Amino acid sequence: MRYSLILLFMIFTACSFVEQKPGSENVTVVSQDQVTNCTMLGKTRVSVLSEIGFADLMESYVAEKLDLMGKNAGVDQGGNRVVKLEEPEPGIAVYGVYKCK
């Protein structure tokens, strides 16, 4: 019983730590072909928890949190679009940050 409560606590706390930065709602995640007339500002590598113990988190949840962190990085670098360039392993992604008109 005690271990079940600890596991449940870990699952709920792990799901709530990625916060949306102000301005990230103005950053969009797009594909590479949607940034042809944009200036690349840089790249960012982001990571989120993709498993808890022996349990993998849902891929859609992990992808959503990675995109949110990519958008947050876009705000930090002054961009308004980000492109997921690669996912070298679960829970890690590299985004290109772009400024488009």
Helicity, as a percent range? 25-40%
Order of helices and strands: HEEEEHEE
Strand-pairing-aware structural class: alpha+beta
Shape: elongated
Number of strands: 6
CATH class: Alpha Beta
CATH fold-level assignment: Dodecin subunit-like
Major sheet: arrangement of strands: 1-5-6-2
Strand content of the residues, in percent?
25-35%
Mean pLDDT: 85
Radius of gyration: 16 Å
N-to-C CA distance: 56 Å
- What is the H level of CATH, i.e. the homologous superfamily? Flavin-binding protein dodecin
List low-confidence stretches: none
- Which architecture per CATH? 2-Layer Sandwich
Number of helices: 2
Q: How would a textbook summarize the main sheet?
A: 4 strands, mixed
The tally of structural domains comes to 1
Structural topology:
Layout lengths: L1 H13 L13 E3 L7 E10 L3 E2 L2 E2 L2 H19 L3 E9 L2 E9 L1
Parallel strand pairs: 1-5
Antiparallel strand pairs: 2-6, 3-4, 5-6
Short key terms for the protein model shown above:
single chain; 101 residues; alpha+beta; Dodecin subunit-like; four-stranded mixed beta sheet; two-stranded antiparallel sheet; 6 strands; elongated
Mind explaining what this structure looks like?
- The chain is an alpha+beta fold and 101 residues long.
- The chain has a single domain (2-100), classed as Dodecin subunit-like (2-Layer Sandwich).
- It has helices spanning 2-14, 59-77, and strands spanning 28-30, 38-47, 51-52, 55-56, 81-89, 92-100.
- Strands 1-5-6-2 form a four-stranded mixed β-sheet, with helices on one face. Strands 3-4 form a two-stranded antiparallel sheet.
- A hairpin with a 2-residue loop joins strand 5 (81-89) and strand 6 (92-100).
- The model has no long low-confidence stretch (mean pLDDT 85).
